[in-house]
Amino acid sequence: MKKRPFGVTLLAILAGLAAVLAGVHALQALGIFPYMIGPFSVHAFNFWSFLMWALLVWVYVWLVQMLWRVDKQAWLFLR
Q: Residue 40: which H helix or E strand, with range?
């Protein structure tokens, strides 16, 4: 097992948090979660926005996996 530095662990956790937030935005684009604007909530459907957010979720999940395994490809991506 490779030794994982604390900074890499922290970056993996932050990338995981970003993946969760991008997932919430993807669900908002599908109209499942509402957009909250102060006291108002708006349900909207935009498939193109959903595709872009879903792609970003996929990239963040890949990044978390590669950082957790201490793979060189993740460092090239972050650089």
A: strand 40-42
